[in-house]
Specification:
single chain; alpha/beta; D-Maltodextrin-Binding Protein, domain 2; 2 domains; 4-stranded mixed sheet; 15 strands; binds calcium ion
């Protein structure tokens, strides 16, 4: 499923963008108490929605006489219809709730349109997809309504979700204590290592060369040497690339899965926790050890010399070369990165390797896979916030969520004889993502589907191989205290965004140099010094404060 890879990249992109936006954000003081706006949300509701008699606080329809709300949405794909009201799932929502939505659909101009609208007096009632900076700024300014009382008073599904999954509530609780957005949850079991890859190795070559699946970093090195020198693809040419990768070492298609054997629990943003203390992964001794080892493999020609210059397309063409030439790579899912079924005869996931001295690996995992804050906000322009929150809550029913994110039951989703639903191959002439975007709003709205929803209602059988592998081999070594989706204050975000990308770019640049040149030992101390000059201590203290606040909010949400 290319989409997952693409989507994760997209989400990371959006996060990065939001960080950038925050970096050049307003310096206006923010009312951290937010007291002024919370009262407004609940005043005059009933008259606004056409009198007490028109609004039903429970059950459906939400209103007796039809009302219209406006909603800004990020219709990110050209395969979406020009009006979401053409979707059957949206028609069904209107029939059930009696709420008509006028969709504002700027396509690729979404971010720009959103900024303009948020800064104007012409606010839509609902916006799907505000970033952290917008949530704190416009929440603090009173442009976005605090939702906690509305959720408490008028919702069924969101309330249940907060109770059953307190982390969702912690996720959307802003540093000022208010909730300005609904959470989004896509807790598919395939999201376990969200944002990072899994090691995939050519098992056919291992078998043909009479070798064994490596279990330690040393055995792995020996297998890679055999791949390089013993012509496993039997074409008489030394064309094998034992290990290939693209991008920075700790990214999805880098080599983070191998680095985890050193105890790194590698992830692109470098933030992690050790015994409650925030660390920058790039200064840990185990990180240094991992980079040094990769450099040793590089020096022996075991790693693709184009690692740091090639792109995804180039890597994919190497993976799919006929005959196969790649021995090992970090991938999102075997089904995504290989074009044909034949790949399954050759490639399989590689269990995590033991590290130096037989040490157990520490495998990265997402703390709350598929959780984000790009849900629904209600603006102060909305005259019927209680209608809006009830409409949003309608989507948060698990079955409705599944239909809004994947398509209708018994239309796109087919019932398996064992009772669960699955997604069959797309109709002739379109791929899964095109089909999906023609069926439902997909990733452009708010929803929540938890792991049990994906186990019992909709199963993406396509991901079973990876999911089963991770359950069995990766989970036992998963890190105990993964980095949570912290929510920074405006002040923290402003400083953080001044330093974060520079620090990470520098660390990645040095890692690439060291892998290629092997000069890590002599340059390590200067590197640490440079990071400190760049503001690493602020980076650490900001993250520590945000992490401590997360723990506290989670504790409160769990009570
Ligand atoms: Ca060969």
């Amino acid at each position: 499923m290319k989409s997952k890879t693409f989507l994760t990249t997209l989400l990371i992109g959006i996060l990065c963008l939001s960080l950038l936006l925050a970096g050049c954000g307003s310096k206006e003081p923010v009312d951290q108490s937010g007291e002024s706006s919370s009262g407004e949300a609940n005043s005059g509701n009933d008259t606004a929605s056409g009198g007490e008699s028109n609004f039903n606080p429970t059950g459906y329809p939400i209103v007796k006489e039809k009302v219209t709300l406006t909603a800004l949405v990020n219709n990110y794909s050209a395969d979406f219809p020009d009006d979401y009201n053409k979707f059957n799932v949206v028609k069904k929502a209107e029939e059930t709730t009696n709420v008509h939505i006028e969709w504002i659909m700027p396509g690729s101009g979404f971010e720009e349109q959103k900024s303009l609208l948020l800064a104007s007096d012409d606010l839509p009632d609902i916006i799907f997809g505000c970033n952290d900076f917008e949530l704190i700024k416009y929440g603090g300014d009173g442009v976005l309504l605090p939702l906690e009382d509305l959720i408490d008073k008028y919702t069924v599904n969101l309330k249940r979700i907060f109770e059953e999954h307190p982390a969702t509530k912690a996720l959307v609780t802003a540093p000022d204590g208010h909730i300005y957005t609904t959470p989004r949850v896509n807790e598919g079991p395939w999201m376990y290592r969200e944002g990072m890859g899994v090691g995939v190795i050519n098992v056919k070559w291992i078998e043909d060369l009479g070798l064994k699946m490596p279990t330690t970093i040393d055995e792995f090195e020996e297998v890679m040497k055999a791949f390089k020198t013993r012509d496993p693809n039997k074409n008489g040419i030394a064309d094998e690339i034992p290990i290939t990768a693209i991008g920075d070492p700790m990214t999805m298609h880098g080599l983070g899965y191998l680095m985890d054997s050193f105890g790194v629990s590698a992830r692109w943003h470098f933030a992690d926790v050790r015994d409650g203390k925030v660390v920058f992964i790039g200064t840990l001794p185990e990180y240094k050890e991992a980079i040094k080892w990769l450099s040793k493999l590089w020096a022996q020609g075991l790693i693709d010399q184009e690692w740091f210059t090639q792109d995804y397309t180039k890597k994919a063409s190497k993976l799919n070369n006929d005959p196969y030439i790649v021995g090992y790579a970090d991938l999102w899912d075997i089904n995504d990165d290989f074009g044909t079924e034949k790949a399954h005869e050759y490639y399989d996931y590689m269990p995590p390797l033991k590290g130096p001295g037989g040490r157990d690996p520490i495998m990265y995992r997402a703390a709350y896979p598929g959780y984000d804050r790009f849900g629904a906000v209600i603006t102060r322009g909305c005259e019927m916030p209680e209608v809006a929150i009830r409409y949003i809550d309608y989507i948060y029913d698990t079955y409705n969520s599944i239909e809004w994110i994947e398509g209708e039951f018994d239309v796109r989703l087919k019932k398996h004889e064992e009772g669960y639903y699955y997604i069959p191959d797309p109709p002739e002439g379109m791929n899964q993502q095109q089909w999906r975007c023609q069926s439902c709003p997909a990733h452009s709205v708010a929803w929540a589907v938890f792991e049990d929803g994906y186990k019992n209602i909709l199963r993406l059988t396509y991901t079973d191989q990876k999911v089963n592998f991770m359950e069995q081999y990766v989970k036992p070594y998963a890190e105990k205290d993964p980095w949570p989706p912290v929510f920074r204050t405006i002040e923290e975000a402003e400083r953080y965004n001044q330093i974060d990308s520079a620090i990470i770019s520098y660390a990645n640049m040095k890692a690439a140099e060291w892998i290629m040149n092997g000069t890590i030992e002599e340059e390590w101390d200067a590197y640490i010094e440079e990071l400190n000059k760049m503001g690493l201590n602020d980076w650490l203290s900001i993250n520590q404060a945000a992490y401590d606040r997360w723990q506290e909010v989670l504790g409160t949400a769990s009570k």
